[in-house]
Amino acid sequence: MMQDNMEDIDLARSLLREDKWNLVIVKKGQVLFGSRERGIAPFFQAVRSIGQDLHNAAVADRVVGLAVAMLCLHARVSSVYAGIASRGAFDMLKRKGVAVDSESTVPHISNYDGTDLCPFEKLAESCQKPSQLMAALKSLFGEGDQ
Fold this sequence. Notes:
Elements: H1 2-18, E1 23-27, E2 30-35, H2 41-50, E3 58-64, H3 66-75, E4 79-86, H4 87-95, E5 99-106, H5 119-125, H6 130-140
Parallel strand pairs: 3-4, 4-5
Antiparallel strand pairs: 1-2, 1-3
C-alpha cells in the first residue's frame, strides 16, 4: 500500500513539473484529475466531483496555501507535493499525518499581483475546519448543496 502511494506522488510531481500542469491528482497509478488553470477553483471542482475517490490519493499542486491544505484534509488525500507551500499549510498537513513535500515554503501565499494575501488564504484563516471552508467555497462559487 505505501509503495503505491510513493509512486502516485512521484507520478503527480513529474506531471506537474514536466507537463506544465498546475494541479495533478493521482491514485493507484491513474491520473484522476489534472488542470492547467490557476487558483483554487480546479481543486475545489475536483473535490466536489470526485469526492470519496480522493481518499488516499496523491496531490501535486503548484501553490499550496491554507485553503488547498484544508481541501486536501477534507478530501482525505494521503500525500501532497507543492511547488510553493505556505508555512501554515505545510505544518497543518504534516500535523494531520499527510506526507508533504515542497520545492519551497513561503510565509504566506499572496494574491496574483502580490499586493495582499491571497483571498483564499484569508478565507481559510477564518475557517475553523475543512468542512467550513467547503461550505464557504460552495457559496462563493455559486453552488448550492447537491
